[in-house]
Structure formats: C-alpha cells, structure tokens
Write a structure and sequence with these properties.
This protein is of the alpha+beta class and about 220 residues long. It has helices at about 5-10, 10-25, 35-50, 55-65, 80-90, 95-110, 120-130, 150-155, 185-205, and strands spanning about 155-165, 170-175, 210-215, 215. α3 runs antiparallel to α4 (about 55-65) and α4 (about 55-65) packs across α6. The protein is globular. InterPro entries: HD/PDEase_dom, HD_domain, MJ1020-like. Pfam families: HD (PF01966). This is HD domain-containing protein.
C-alpha cells in the first residue's frame, strides 16, 4: 500500500474527517486532510534532507497522513487509538508486517502527553506535526471573540518556516508572532511541551532543534 493509495483510501479519509469534525465541536483547531497532508510532506522533507532512504520517507509520509485518525474515537489518547485503527486498516493491505508496525508505532507515539520518538520515522512525524503552527489552522467559522488560547497562539503566527541545515545538523522553527494577539507567555504555555518533544525527536535524527520567535532564539 503506497502513500498515494493511502491518500485516496475512503476509510482513512472518513476517519480523518470524523476526527476533525469532533474536534471542531470541542473547539480545537483544524485537524483536517490539509493538516495531515502538510505533516506527511514535512516529515518526508526532513528525512530526505538528512539522507534517509526512499523507503523510510514513504513510511513517514504514510504515518504523517494517518497520524490523527484516532480523533474519530476520542481526543484523549488519540495517538494510541490511531495506532490501533491504523493497524486494522493496514492489515487488510499487502504492506510488509515490519513496515506496518513501524507506522503504527510512530502514530501511537506522536502525542506529547504519552509518547516520544522511538525511531527516525516517528521522529520526523513528531517534528512535522508539532511545527504545523499557522494562522489558517484556526477555524474560519469562529469569531475572534470566541477564540480560546489555542486559537490565539495559532492566529498570532503571521509567518512560519521550518528550516533544516544539514551542515550544522539543526532543525529550526522560525515564527513571527503578533504579540498583540497572543503574548509570548501564552505561546509557551501551550507549546513548550511540544517544542521539548521536538528536541528529543531531533536528537533521534542526530540533530538539534531550535525555536526562533520574532528573530530571537527561545529554545
């Protein structure tokens, strides 16, 4: 089962859509196919830049696209639920068992509350997921008066770039944050745990993770 087949798989996309709908009702930011595609592409870019083989890149793309399907069951422990769902779906394909387990493990370990990088595929997934911070993840139907802290910290990001420097072995998230919308304190309240998880994931790749906000190094 290839990444292109995964993206067209009706069952997988229905789980993503239901999870995103559920999270919308709970007030969360966008977790749609757009987010999943961005995570898949970013995870692939990270491994490609570090010289990993096409096979590992393909597994990272699949894990990236499927990583949030567990939200269809419940937000709490969605990573573990997602891993179980992914295992059942991929069992029905011709995928090699070791590849299936690698993908299931990456999905199951992508949440900062219970997981962490266990191999290069999971490391790339974690960094790709946690660095998808952008204004258009805030749901358009929400008025600014209804924004919670998660909405504010995403809406406040006016520009974001993830840079991979092979020579220096660094992965840097560069953000421009409108502090009139969200204070730096609020940003760190939400994202510090996620950024520390990225640091551990970068270490798995033999690199250092850096966070730059408004031109200043903060991690």
């Amino acid at each position: 089962m290839t990444f292109e087949e995964i993206k067209k798989n009706k069952e997988i996309n229905e789980f993503i859509n239901k999870g995103n709908y559920n999270l919308g009702l709970l007030g969360y930011t966008d977790h749609s196919q757009i987010h999943c595609s961005i995570v898949a592409d970013t995870a692939a870019m990270i491994l490609k830049r570090f010289g990993y083989c096409e096979h590992d890149i393909e597994l990272a793309k699949i894990a990236g696209y499927m990583h949030d399907i567990g939200n269809a069951i419940n937000r709490s422990h969605h990573a573990e639920y997602g891993g179980l769902l992914a295992n059942e779906i991929l069992k029905k394909s011709d995928m090699d068992i070791k590849d299936r387990i690698t993908i299931v493990s990456a999905i199951s370990n992508h949440d900062e509350s219970t997981g962490g990088a266990v191999d290069v595929v999971s490391a790339a997934l974690i960094i790709a997921d946690k660095t998808d911070v952008r204004r258009d993840r805030v749901r358009s139907e929400k008025g600014k008066a209804a924004f919670d802290i998660h909405d504010r910290v995403n809406y406040a990001v006016t520009e974001h770039k993830l840079k991979v420097n092979i020579e220096k072995k660094t992965i840097s998230l560069n953000l421009q944050i409108d502090t009139k919308i969200c204070s730096m304190y609020e940003y760190f309240e939400i994202f510090l745990g996620r950024m520390m998880m990225c640091r551990g994931a970068a270490d798995m790749l033999g690199a250092t993770f850096k966070l730059m906000a408004n031109g200043s190094k903060v991690l």
